[in-house]
Specification:
Length: 422
């Protein structure tokens, strides 16, 4: 794979990088703290799932509430027997009393808790500390996407399905680079050894390049899509694909690039590929496959919108043909599973509504089962990149032609106006 020297990820034939920067959560172009999403995110969810982030938001809102003013307790006679017959002391002023805000009281409470935990095993404490870690791409994130007509597979069974028979046929076309003479058992064993890793960065450096092979398709990765118009009103993180393909910015007519900037230009970096429509999300063995799928759904929606913007550029009405022109893949090193998905866009179901973005599974492969299954998966992956590039180039060329035709017509009208004045 051809790699640009400035920011491109090094692949199989390149020297390994020492470290790969971790993904950062970003909202509206700024770094998102590890705490939570904005309150508007939670206010607009049609259903709130019980996730660590939802509990943190509940704690935040409870802490922000003013302490209730305790009612004045009733005064009773000091006669003990009569006092007891009347029910004892009035404790209503203690109901709903918030936790103490004073730091010293909190510290005292914390020390008491620590003391009680000393009797528990160290192993249990370690598991508890890990349990509080959560991904931004949880059930509530998925619900947020669904509420905005961005659907994972099977989440919207009423949507028209794209015809993917021809695409699946193209994905299975053999590739000489994966023939037994060029990718033999020893190379498959090398893949298996490199797949025994514990970090996502190592997966991207050492494992994914074996799957991608060498190609001249412009690509980038691990860059937040800060220039795209948010599909979620900026209430969630920006998409940060581990890997994506796009077109060189110079291939897109300048007027098209400017008119569709927030639809096809993912970042403000001048040399990053534009109009991305092929994406990869990878996970280390301890990473969640469900998280990778949600990330791929999010990436694919941006890619589908980019292709639709180019396809509709210069047309009187938006073009909705229910065909898939964007593809995403996920790879989970723990299971050795490669999944391929197609994404397509359909018109709003109501006037003034949002378009709908749909994710459909194409194929799935156990890359670590045998050399044959690896070859099948890598073949589909590489062919999908080629198919995505053909779609991308076709739409860019058509948009460029319409832009130039519009320029010619504008120039002609200007000449007629000048002649009439004379």
């Amino acid at each position: 794979m051809a790699i640009r020297q400035n920011r491109k990820r090094h692949l199989a034939d390149d020297p390994p990088q020492e470290h790969r920067p971790s993904k950062k959560l970003r909202v509206k172009g700024r770094a998102q703290s590890s705490s939570n999403f904005a309150p508007e995110f939670w206010d607009n969810l049609s259903k709130v799932w019980l996730t660590p982030r939802a509990l943190r938001e509940l704690d935040r809102r409870n802490d922000a509430r003013p302490a209730p003013k305790p009612p004045t307790p009733a005064v009773y006679t000091t006669d003990l027997a009569q006092f007891a017959r009347r029910g004892g002391p009035d404790l209503r002023h203690l109901r709903g009393y918030p936790e103490p805000r004073d730091d010293r009281l909190k510290m005292s409470s914390s020390r008491a808790s620590d003391s009680s935990r000393r009797t528990k095993s160290t192993k249990a404490t370690t598991i508890s500390s890990k349990a509080i870690r959560s991904s931004a791409y949880d059930d509530d994130f998925e619900q947020h996407l669904t509420d905005r007509n961005i659907y994972l597979p099977l989440r919207n069974n009423q949507a028209p399905k794209p015809n993917l028979d021809d695409t699946r046929l193209l994905l299975s076309a053999s590739r000489p680079s994966l023939s037994p003479s060029r990718f033999d058992d020893s190379r498959f064993e090398d893949f298996l050894q490199k797949n025994e890793t514990k970090s996502e960065g190592t997966v991207m450096r050492n494992v994914i390049p074996i799957i991608t092979g060498n190609a001249s398709i412009p690509n980038e990765g691990n860059l937040p899509f800060t220039n795209f118009k948010s599909l979620t009103e900026g209430l969630t993180v920006n998409a940060v694909p581990d890997f994506f393909d796009g077109a060189p910015p110079g291939d897109v007519d300048r007027s098209v690039r400017e008119d569709l900037s927030q639809m096809i230009v993912p970042t403000k970096h001048a040399d990053v590929p534009v109009a991305p429509n092929f994406f990869l999300e990878a996970k280390a063995p301890r990473g969640g496959a469900d998280v990778a799928r949600r990330q791929a759904c999010y990436d694919g929606a941006y890619g589908a919108r980019a292709m639709h913007s180019l396809q509709s550029y210069g047309e009187e009405e938006p073009v909705y043909d229910s065909n898939a022109y964007t593809y995403t893949t996920t790879y989970h090193a723990g299971t050795g599973t490669l999944q391929l998905y197609a994404h397509h866009i359909t018109p709003p179901t109501a006037p003034g509504g949002r378009p709908e973005y749909h994710m459909t599974k194409l194929r799935g492969f156990d890359m670590t089962d045998s050399r044959e299954t690896f070859v099948q998966g890598a073949t589909a992956f590489r062919n999908a990149r080629d198919v995505a590039q053909r779609h991308r180039d076709k739409f860019i060329q058509a948009a460029n032609a319409r832009a130039r035709q519009s320029d010619v017509e504008a120039q002609h009208e200007a000449e007629i106006t000048v002649a009439a004045v004379k």
